[in-house]
Amino acid sequence: MPRKQYYSIYNPPSLSMTELEKTTLDHDATDMLIDKWLEHRCLPHDAYLEWFRDIRERKHINSRKRQALLWNKGEFVPENIFCRTVDTGRLIPLDRTWTTHVYHHRSLQDRNLSMMHVVFTMLPELMILRGMHDLGCDEIFIIVTDLKRQEMDEVTEYFKLVCRNTFGRTCKDRIRQQIQLENMRISHTLGPHRRTPCFPQIDLTLRAILFEKRPRFIVLFSNQTTPYSQILFTHNCFVPDEEIFYDYPTGCPNPCCTEDCEMIRFPRRGLDTASVLKIKRGGRFRSRQMCNWIECQVCFDEETVASSSSESSETSTIEPSRTTAQVCSKCKLVQYCCLDHQKKDWDEHRRVCVKAPAGF
């Protein structure tokens, strides 16, 4: 008989323990939301469309080892906007969909709150964050709460404290006491306001997702009159680059707003404003440089072992070697392991490939 699990603020919980409802939106639902979002982009003075147009006019970026967001050709559709992935260095369009798992209190269903509305509210941000990762982002996790802005900030600081000291680490007695006091303080602060879900359920579900699913990021969504979202990243490398997103729209529905309100807390200033959970992953994350053909597994910054033997010798010598990268001669933005993979990738790459500036 399996041992019954109990909630602990120190030990990793299991998703089977959560009392929150889970609504899953598959790839088809995501496609439908993207189509609906594109319909709204034809409105005049749309902040997101104007931002992407600015991206299109900016100077051509010549780095194959940094983040990049490029719209070089065609109309404004996800398949024409390319993002460089932080994990494999590939240049891939934003048209890849994902599965969204939304965890929420059961009362939200009684109030007829559609989980598709929750995803639609932050759809452009999710498209960009999904596009930044080649691996590990087929599933996106959102926890719906009704926390106010200040309460959300306090909860975020608590999770930073817990992840920094408990995930893959032995927690010292002094830190354990600090975590316990902070957990009690937040629970007692939110209790009289009858926040749903309650803080222990938010804590349990979020830490269980981090422990079992190892996502690149997780979103706390506040279902207030004006929705508010907090994006929690699990590594510094997963944070969008300030040089690209410094003027990204704040998400405020008021077109005349002059304040830095950030209804969707997208880290426009990079690590200075990003919420990063310091999770020990059992190994250092390292960005790789791979062949741009999506089905190729060749990595240019790793050595491969080749065995060679001669007829006159019974022993063989093991010689490590590196595959030489072949850069696209036109745009110089992507690299391939062979001409055959460049040809296979051309139907997709042609939508972003333009002649590089002189002296590139």
From TrEMBL:
Source species, domain of life: Eukaryota
Keyword Metal-binding: yes
Molecular-function GO terms, alphabetical: zinc ion binding
InterPro entries the UniProt entry points to: Znf_MYND (IPR002893)
Keywords: Metal-binding, Zinc, Zinc-finger
Pfam families with a match to the protein in the record: zf-MYND
Domain named MYND-type: residues: 296-353
Record carries keyword Metal-binding: yes
Protein name per Swiss-Prot or TrEMBL: MYND-type domain-containing protein
